[in-house]
Design brief:
The structure holds two protein chains of two kinds. Helix content of chain A is 79%, strand content 0%. By secondary structure, chain A is mostly helical. Chain A starts with a helix and ends with a helix. Classes of the chains: A mainly alpha, B alpha/beta.
Chain lengths: 328, 276
């Protein structure tokens, strides 16, 4: 077995172990033997049964797929745009989703279960269309990221404008939602995110050679038979769908898409297949443990998960900058 | 020799600017053709038309025909074109640390279906191609850390893995020192496939191409052997400098030198002779 396979196998084992371990963390005292009996047979304690199956398992599973999805979205964007700083946040996808969710939250009081993710998705799609349109008008792909940043700020300002004039209760709800949390997730959220994640992974695996061809430039890829614009648009659409669904259920969780592919490139490799699988596994481990920290570090409260990922992400980037300075 | 490509009355306009006009020529199987001419003559544009990449630009208008095996190039899918043409562009760098193996695997793309993984046969092909260009030891090296000459050789090896009938090279000796210029062109010559390349250095073109196409201001001025194309009269007109022709004592190839047209200045060769 080669080095890459060994690392991927070890990471897969770590994902399973992390998920199992994360279920034991929480305010209710459930030891590992009780957990094991609940998982493999029937629970003796009815409270433990409810806590494990209706609270902790959905939460850990959503953390797992959300971590996978955000990391994969970052990896796809980075490889298709040849930009290591590309991230769903910087492409305006999250701001678009945020605006959509804000409008849904402010205008609709009920029926948010379906309306919220749908509005977030439409918002994300809207931002992608604007970003691609600007890049098309400029005819320069390297401007895609700058266009994304501009659109991101523009949509964020619209969101803030709506919130400023919005009804305080709804505004509060949106502000907390934007900070990111897995506290209210349900098993149905896991199924939705997992379905889109599977579609994204299958599509990327199918097209991994075409995405790889982009790594040496658009002209080189076109000479190898790749329809560059169509491929890039498809990948942006997939990232928008993936990110929008995750953001809709979990709120704003930043830096995962930027940070995780960076680690994977150092550890496993730069080509799409390795990057996607590696990012999915490390992204899952990362978000499972960040969520554990979010729900267990304060005695009677939770820290919004987005605050932790952003703090870790910024420290991580300062570390990377320091290390590259030490090398040069 | 059979005819692979037929170009007739080709004209390419972008936003009312004529890039190419009145281009007519055939390409026979196995020929090594050099496209020469001053900057902006339309050399790279002609390569783009050959591989059907010219349509990508907005407001692009192409008239005339480019036939590949008697079928219009526009009727071929992008994948089919990639199965016929392997292209080595001038600029090929990546911000990510791609290995030589990663770059080589790109050459497999036109022959692969969705989801397909690398077979043992693919790996053997990659090793064989790298061996042909003398870089089989560099499989796991970082592509960006190779010298310019080595990068060109890897890209030529990638073209071999692509198994196309026609190799297109855009200024393959650009930014290379004299040793690598000869090494790369000698390698291209030994491949025994049809090669169409733009070459800036006329003496290298004379040495390594069987046939030359001289372009100026988007028009094909002359098409023939180096002896027929590299005449002082023709080159002086196209490049705007007096030109002198000689025969290289060792290779027997036509060599040309240009001189500044300044009667007071000492005659000092410019352009071509500096490379040889």
């Amino acid at each position: 077995m080669n080095k890459v396979s060994t690392i991927l196998l070890a990471l897969t084992a770590l994902v399973i172990l992390s998920a199992m371990a994360a279920i034991t963390f929480g305010p209710a005292d459930i030891d590992s033997s009780e957990l094991l009996s609940c998982l493999v047979s029937t629970c003796q304690n009815p409270i433990a049964n409810v806590v494990i199956w209706q609270v902790r398992i959905p939460r850990v599973l959503v953390a797992l797929v959300a971590g996978m999805g955000l990391a994969i979205a970052g990896a796809i964007l980075q490889n298709t745009t040849r930009n290591p700083l590309a991230d769903p946040y910087l492409f305006g996808i999250v701001s678009g989703a945020g605006l959509g969710a804000t409008i849904a939250n402010i205008t609709l009081a009920d029926n948010l279960t379906i309306a919220l993710p749908l509005a977030a998705f439409l918002g994300a799609l809207f931002s992608v269309i604007i970003v691609v349109f600007i890049a098309k008008v400029l005819q320069r792909m390297e401007q895609l990221l700058l266009a994304g940043v501009a659109v991101s700020f523009m949509l964020a300002s619209v969101t803030q404008f709506i919130l400023y004039f919005g009804e305080p209760f709804a505004t509060n709800r949106v502000i907390f939602w934007l900070m990111g949390s897995l506290a209210r997730v349900e098993m149905s959220n896991f199924y939705v995110i997992a379905s889109i994640l599977v579609i994204a992974i299958v599509t990327v695996v199918a097209l991994h050679r075409q995405i790889d061809a982009l790594l040496l430039g658009d002209e080189s890829a076109a000479s190898l038979g790749v329809d560059v614009d169509k491929l890039r648009l498809l990948m942006l659409g997939i990232c928008a769908a993936l990110t929008a669904t995750i953001v809709a259920y979990c709120g704003g969780i930043g830096f995962v898409g930027l940070m995780i592919p960076h680690i994977v490139r150092q550890l496993i490799g730069v080509t799409t297949l390795k990057l996607i699988i590696g990012s999915a596994l490390i992204g899952a481990i990362f978000l499972i443990w960040v969520d554990v920290v979010a729900r267990s570090s304060l005695p009677h409260a939770e820290i919004p998960i987005g605050i932790i990922t952003s703090a870790l992400g910024s420290i991580f980037f300062l570390f990377i900058m320091y290390r590259s300075r030490a090398i040069t | 020799m059979s005819t692979l490509i037929t170009i007739s009355q080709l004209r390419w306009q972008v936003q009312n600017k004529t890039i190419l006009q009145n281009i007519n020529f055939n390409v026979q199987k196995g020929e090594v053709i050099g496209i020469i001419g001053p900057n902006g003559a339309g050399k790279t544009s002609l390569l783009r038309c050959l591989t059907n990449q010219a349509n990508i630009l907005n407001s692009s208008q192409i008239t005339g025909s480019v036939l590949l095996k008697n079928r219009a190039i526009t009727q071929f899918s992008a994948k089919e074109i990639a199965q016929h043409f392997a292209v080595v562009m001038q600029k090929n760098d990546s911000i990510f640390a791609l290995s030589v193996q990663d770059v080589m695997k790109m050459g497999l793309l036109p022959h692969k279906t969705l989801f397909s993984l690398d077979s043992d046969h693919d790996k053997a092909q990659i090793t064989l191609a790298l061996k042909k260009v003398g870089l089989d030891h560099a499989l796991h090296n970082h592509f960006n850390q190779l010298s310019g000459g080595e990068q060109q050789r890897v890209l030529i090896a990638r073209a071999l893995v692509q198994a196309s009938q026609i190799l297109i090279l855009d200024e393959p000796t650009n930014h290379l020192d004299v040793y690598y210029q000869h090494q790369v062109l000698q390698l291209v010559n030994k491949l025994n496939i049809t090669v169409i390349m733009t070459v800036h250095d006329l003496n290298l073109a004379s040495l390594y191409c069987q046939r030359l196409l001289l372009l100026n201001q988007g028009q094909l001025i002359c098409d023939g052997s180096p002896e027929e194309v590299l005449t002082p009269k023709q080159l002086s007109q196209v490049f705007g400098l007096p030109c002198q022709q000689s025969i290289d004592a060792i290779t027997g190839a036509i060599q040309v030198s240009f001189y500044l047209n300044d009667d007071n200045a000492q005659k000092k060769p410019v352009l071509e002779s500096s490379d040889e």
